[in-house]
């Protein structure tokens, strides 16, 4: 049998090149942050803050969906741009003017579900909801919301105890689609259905991870890493100083055991102590956000090479009720990539 060297086998050479480009996850992270990039518009909506971004890059255009926040409640907004430096000038398309409708909608996640050739927007509406669209750039094209569940799963309802069922996140492997969610009480839940059945049949809800309330609070997001088929879990925590930050874990399967990666205040995924700002830090919280993805399908695959994370931040001097706080969006970029 003839042995092929890397130079004599072009497919092997391509694999090695991709592997080198993909790099691997580091066990500790350092970041640099922009200032606020996206703020509420000074328009008739009179928003207090813009929050909970989800983002994909398609052919050089960034598509962002986010929560609009004000004392009276939440809804969703869409914007797109080709340059982060010009993001704040992007037109806001308020999705309560689409079939998504008015009322409580928050914490979106967007992805392309390849088996159906449809974009999905996942969000919370008191349940876990979804809307679909053939064209992500057409904000009017989103369908009326449908719920994944008839009601709050029993295991979640029994554990709320003053918490809230929040922040739904969908990721699929080759066989199943999984929906992760939080209860603001230290528990991360996972529900599932067959890939071929999605979005129907979501059930079998279990506790995927648990910790103290503030240490496993909300805003989970889960990704497949391109180089080694590991999964990366991020969950927002409330630090000992009262500010928000992200912890991280990895697993070899979406239904497997999560192992801590950078998951302490001293060694966080992203916190004020490992994020560098130019000048005075505009925020002490690195809160609800999303990886910038250019691989957009339901596998939520990221290249762990110089990660970028769009997040919500808040002026340290801001005061008031939570829904009326002036959250804005900024971008952190990893500065200690292994690539």
From TrEMBL:
It is found in: Secreted. This is Alpha-L-arabinofuranosidase. It comes from Bombardia bombarda. Alpha-L-arabinofuranosidase involved in the hydrolysis of xylan, a major structural heterogeneous polysaccharide found in plant biomass representing the second most abundant polysaccharide in the biosphere, after cellulose. Belongs to the glycosyl hydrolase 62 family. It is an enzyme of class 3 (hydrolase). GO terms for molecular function: alpha-L-arabinofuranosidase activity. One of its GO terms (biological process) is L-arabinose metabolic process. The keyword NADP does not apply. Its EC number is 3.2.1.55. Transmembrane segments: none annotated. Pfam families: Glyco_hydro_62 (PF03664). Keywords: Glycosidase, Hydrolase, Secreted, Signal. It catalyses: Hydrolysis of terminal non-reducing alpha-L-arabinofuranoside residues in alpha-L-arabinosides. GO terms for cellular component: extracellular region. Its main location: secreted. InterPro entries: GH62_arabinosidase (IPR005193), Glyco_hydro_beta-prop_sf (IPR023296).
